[in-house]
């Protein structure tokens, strides 16, 4: 996958990748808090695809016909949500703040926080935008929100607020704090280091991102100072992709798909087999996937697979994107780092394959995976990351 040297060839589809797509649904879930707020319901899609297993390799003498990822049909219906979920949300005071820890949660088990400190599309009595600190853990067992005027936004304010969370909720300061806004990196990093916390710039703040989306509709839009049409003050970066570092090079790669049951097995074995990677607790995120649903992914093979997986493990891998305009794959890591992960020769066929893979990823709600193997035909992975490509939050 070393840049422009790659061309496209194909191996016969593996039987493990040849199931048709089944139903995938995103069901609403309630955030565990006294106000019982609910996530925004997602649409439920029914679709099917033809089997596909398209490796992109170094030059080869053969170039068999490709099997396309090609959705045959998509129909949508709304996901039903209990009426009381909306009734309870309507009763919430949008100007109130939240300080909550699930009574069934062991405070010492909350070792990582997800944090956002940013302005909101809300004006105070001075006509200035209100800032808000939002903190949670990945399971939303811990939830904290607090509004601030725009003239006290600094590392001291944030440091004091994090200490207040610890004291008020009776939880120790976390070992790590994940955050996704590059513009706030200086303030957050300084505050964390003064408290002995490791700051982790990462877009894998999925619980936080989903919660912010839900708060926008149930809290911010109902706030008396809400400014309709206001754009996010600190928009997420989407920089031009850089050249891939040599230590991240692979030798072969392939568009693949796995039934979700196989993905669950792979995730559960990460610790057992000492495999590098990271999973997602979809139950906690309120995402339901049928075991037979095929999830699109990218398989990477390398003779130095273990060192490659070890390097990848420290990067906070966020997503993989097929960029058909450039004829390449883009790997997003951390907050705003994007690499040209591989290139391929642009032809109508390769463009169609890449577009179909992206369509399959979109149809699965952004769910996809990255697998690192010693050989593309191997049944074992030495690195496996389950990824969720979410749109940027509305704030």
Automatic annotation (TrEMBL):
GO molecular function, one term: RNA binding
Position of the signal peptide: none
Bias (Low complexity) ranges: 73-83
Lineage top rank: taxon: Eukaryota
Biased composition (Acidic residues): 84-95
Domain RNA-binding protein Tab2/Atab2 C-terminal as annotated: residue spans: 233-387
Region (Disordered): 29-48, 69-104
Occurrences of domain RNA-binding protein Tab2-like N-terminal (ranges): 113-215
Protein name: PI-PLC Y-box domain-containing protein
Species this protein is from: Gossypium darwinii
């Amino acid at each position: 996958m070393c840049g422009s040297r790659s061309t496209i060839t194909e191996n016969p589809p593996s039987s493990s990748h040849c199931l048709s797509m089944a139903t995938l649904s995103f069901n609403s879930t309630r955030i565990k808090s006294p106000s019982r707020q609910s996530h925004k319901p997602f649409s439920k899609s029914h679709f099917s695809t033809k089997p596909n297993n398209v490796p992109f390799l170094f030059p080869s003498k053969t170039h068999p016909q490709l099997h396309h990822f090609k959705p045959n049909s998509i129909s949508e219906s709304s996901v039903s949500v209990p009426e009381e979920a909306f009734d309870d949300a309507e009763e919430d005071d949008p100007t109130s703040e939240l300080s909550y820890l699930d009574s069934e949660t062991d405070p010492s088990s909350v070792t990582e926080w997800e944090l956002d400190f940013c302005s909101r599309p809300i004006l105070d009595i001075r006509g200035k935008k209100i800032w808000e600190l939002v903190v949670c853990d990945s399971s939303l067992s811990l939830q904290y929100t607090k509004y601030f005027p725009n003239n006290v936004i600094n590392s001291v304010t944030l440091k004091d607020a994090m200490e207040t969370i610890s004291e008020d909720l009776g939880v120790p300061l976390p070992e790590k704090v994940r955050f996704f806004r590059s513009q706030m990196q200086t303030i957050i990093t300084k505050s964390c280091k003064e408290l002995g916390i490791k700051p982790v710039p990462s877009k894998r703040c999925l619980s936080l991102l989903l919660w912010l989306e839900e708060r926008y509709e149930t809290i911010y839009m109902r706030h008396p100072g809400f400014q309709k049409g206001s754009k996010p003050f600190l928009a997420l970066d989407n920089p031009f992709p850089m050249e891939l570092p040599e230590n991240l090079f692979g030798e072969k790669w392939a568009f693949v798909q796995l039934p979700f049951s196989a993905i669950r097995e792979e995730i559960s074995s990460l610790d057992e087999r000492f495999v590098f990677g990271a999973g997602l607790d979809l139950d906690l995120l309120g995402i339901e996937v049928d075991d037979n649903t095929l999830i699109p992914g990218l398989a990477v093979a390398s003779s130095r697979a273990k060192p490659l997986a070890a390097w990848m493990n420290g990067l906070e891998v966020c997503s993989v994107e097929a960029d058909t305009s450039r004829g390449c794959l883009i790997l997003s890591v951390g907050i705003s780092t994007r690499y040209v992960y591989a290139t391929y020769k642009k032809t109508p066929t390769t463009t169609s394959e890449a577009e179909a893979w992206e369509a399959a990823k979109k149809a699965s709600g952004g769910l996809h995976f990255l697998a690192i193997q010693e050989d593309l035909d191997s049944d074992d992975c030495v690195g496996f990351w389950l990824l969720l490509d979410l749109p940027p939050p509305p704030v």
